[in-house]
């Protein structure tokens, strides 16, 4: 299992990008996932690296990887969260969590 890496930018004029980046880190924090932030605004090389790994020459932050394996972007993580499949999205083995208790009447 690799390290979860989130490519993001600390310099953006886009409120939408800022919100998506904040939501990605919030989701990862809630799931107690350790991750590394890589700021693509530091160098053009990091931006091009992110795009090459994502397989999209127009990819914008945030982009999420497990090691060098591409997991997806914000929308894909959000969908995985809604479907309770964050660990699958991150390509990680699920930690032992208690199953949801269902109340029947």
TrEMBL record:
Highest taxon of the lineage: Eukaryota
InterPro entries for the chain: Glut_rich_SH3-bd, SH3BGR, Thioredoxin-like_sf
Pfam families per the UniProt record, alphabetical: SH3BGR
GO cellular component: cytoplasm
SUPFAM superfamilies: Thioredoxin-like
Gene3D superfamilies in UniProt: Glutaredoxin (3.40.30.10)
Family, similarity comment: Belongs to the SH3BGR family.
Protein name: SH3 domain-binding glutamic acid-rich-like protein 3
Annotated organism of origin: Platysternon megacephalum (big-headed turtle)
Organism lineage: Eukaryota, Metazoa, Chordata, Craniata, Vertebrata
